[in-house]
Amino acid sequence: MMDYVNAFWVGGLICALVQILMEKTKMMPGRIMVLLVISGAVISVFGLYEPFQEYAGAGASVPLLGFGNVLMKGVKEAVKEQGLLGLFAGGFKAGAVGTSAALIFGYLASLVFKSKMNH
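Structure (tokenized):
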């Protein structure tokens, strides 16, 4: 039960902090998303993301911080295996499944639901 509680409050805290950042600064949402991915990657470099994810579960792995962690883990593994070339290939390989799923499900949702955008 505590796993659910920890995931809920940590994920909610991340979302609340991002909302405050959006409201109190003039940063565009795209820049905030990039900031989250980079923050997750930096936390991963210092070895702090794994304990954080063990504690928070999906509250840490689902937000964009988790995507930054996935990219960094992929880069680390690829550099060990391939050397410098892994620096460029590792993030793409590690993030491919999540990115592909987002694109496919986004496309399927666009077929099912009608857009409300006015042109």
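The longest helix spans residues 85-112. The chain has a mean pLDDT of 91.
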